[in-house]
Amino acid sequence: MGERNLILAFESSCDETSIAVVEDGRTILSNIIATQIDSHKRFGGVVPEVASRHHIEQVTRCLKEALSKANVTYADLTAVAVTYGPGLVGALLIGVTAAKAVAFAHHLPLIPVNHMAGHIYAGRFVSDFEFPQMALLVSGGHTELVYIESENDFKILGETRDDAAGEAYDKIGRVLGVTYPAGKTIDQWAHQGEDTFDFPRAMEKDASYDFSFSGLKSSFINTVHNAEQRKVTLNKEDLAASFQQSVVDVLAEKTDRALDRFPVKQLVLAGGVAANLGLRERIERDMHQKHPATKLIMAPIKLCGDNAAMIGAAGYVAYQHQKRAQMDLNAEPGLSF
Amino acid sequence: MKILAMDTSNHPLSVALVEDWQLVAETTLNLAKNHSVYLMPTIESLMKSVDWQPEQLDRVVVAHGPGSYTGVRIAVTTAKTLATTLDIELVGISSLKLIAANVTTFAPEQLIVSFFDARRGNVFAGGYQWVSGKLVTSIPEKHVAFNSMLNALPSENRSTILVGELNDGLEEQLKNVTATQFKMAPENTTIPSAYQLALLSKQETPVKDIDGFVPNYLRMTEAEVEWQKLHPGESKQSYVREV
């Protein structure tokens, strides 16, 4: 062999149009990310039709930039990888459609990639993977514990039964007047406050590995509204710290128990909310104290949000496993492992 | 010149391969199926059947709307990506003009109005006339209530030909319009042909800014309309930035 494997990867599942070139699944040659956050901020959250319209404005510009920044031509490419789900259907379709056109035009294999597998593979830019492995995936749309018995073999151990963790951050953020996306600000405030409200830890003692954040969200909103009615001003740093402590406790507790039950060589922490410093600190400490034999791989903060480089990394592995899509590939908004 | 032309703006899907303005192959599906699943396989099999390679193409022509937002985006994304990646010409043609061109009258006075259902009694519509063998736009395309569009048609001594699919709601509105003379074009004119699309591109110049080429939606999103109402004059040129 000796020839380098170059994957052109597309990601458009939500509000970022991203195209990347990844070499041998572990070196990022380019990772163009055009974010629409400033647009959706106006509406307090992602509006699907607006997202689709932005993606189609960006897709070919990002494509050209990804290739020129990586300093490669179409003739150098090995394959095209694309996120085909889960996500917003209209948004996914732009990436899927563009990826198919490029694969067709240049006679390249097309590799379908699950967005969540992509998040896990953001960790591969930090360390080689060893199996069995577990991943804690936390984002605006998903909260999952995934068991990976061997390469490219994903099984969900537990997932959220209602809101995703990131969604809960955005919803309580709105109550505190923080613009979408609220995660970063709440995280910062949390570091300046203390857990004085003791919000519920949902399903913490439940035997399953599932999560639930809507009870916490309601409890938080009620607390704030009751105080408003009594004309009492609550300390927003303490509110943030209490909320974050509850989220982090539940995530850490479930992960801890899952690791007791399914010992693994590595734990990967990934997804948009994995950029949360409170969560990173807690998981790091827990792993050190309770699971010293399991290596913790935290996705780099820059690669926690949606990006195509992670899709290229996951696509590389799927390519080795002979995963291929044909020209009838469709977006699958509800795709699961 | 080898042309690939495609339209997925409404239920039908049409793809044609055209060489030197002669039809080489064409496929039209009228199935209300998922265009994302059918468009590329249709292109692939049509190209294979006539032994064309993607790198032999010189031009891509696409119907750029109005129509179903998702449908239009599938063809426009395919077309702009192919044109970019193969470094070839891209031409966008109105989806309304495409079906208006099915009415092949060359009487210059004849007004042809085509429309697509846009739900809630509204349509996307435009008016066209053949002038020296070219179809020119004489009533600008807009999103409008069907009956007010009909009532606004010129009432001079000429009848208008209407091209489009009438559903029950639109048919009801049609009955109540008496001010204007018009007649419905035969049903077969409502089916777009990608061969026709390629021919219409003959009179157009290729798109200069392919990256900036987007569907002609004819409508802002509801979220945008509401936001602009609350924030007059605050709209920015671009809301997307690279990180």
UniProtKB/TrEMBL annotation, chain A:
Compartmental location: Cytoplasm
Residue ranges occupied by any Gcp-like domain in the UniProt entry: 27-312
InterPro entries, alphabetized: ATPase_NBD (IPR043129), Gcp-like_dom (IPR000905), KAE1/TsaD (IPR017861), Peptidase_M22_CS (IPR017860), TsaD (IPR022450)
Binding site for Fe cation: H115, H119, D306
EC number, as in UniProt: 2.3.1.234
Binding residues annotated for substrate, in chain numbering: L137, V138, S139, G140, G141, D170, G183, D187, N276
UniProt keyword annotations, A-Z: Acyltransferase, Cytoplasm, Iron, Metal-binding, Transferase, tRNA processing
Keyword Disulfide bond set for record: no
Example of a GO MF term: iron ion binding
Matching Pfam families: TsaD (PF00814)
Needed co-factor(s): Fe(2+)
Similarity field: Belongs to the KAE1 / TsaD family.
Job of this protein: Required for the formation of a threonylcarbamoyl group on adenosine at position 37 (t(6)A37) in tRNAs that read codons beginning with adenine. Is involved in the transfer of the threonylcarbamoyl moiety of threonylcarbamoyl-AMP (TC-AMP) to the N6 group of A37, together with TsaE and TsaB. TsaD likely plays a direct catalytic role in this reaction.
HAMAP family xref list: TsaD
Protein name: tRNA N6-adenosine threonylcarbamoyltransferase
Organism: Paucilactobacillus wasatchensis
Gene: gcp
From TrEMBL, chain B:
Pfam families: TsaD
Domain of life: Bacteria
One cellular component (GO) term of this entry: cytosol
Organism from which the protein derives: Paucilactobacillus wasatchensis
One of the protein's GO biological processes: tRNA threonylcarbamoyladenosine modification
Domain Gcp-like positions: 32-227
Name listed for the protein in its UniProt record: Putative molecular chaperone
Matches recorded under InterPro entries: ATPase_NBD, Gcp-like_dom, T6A_TsaB
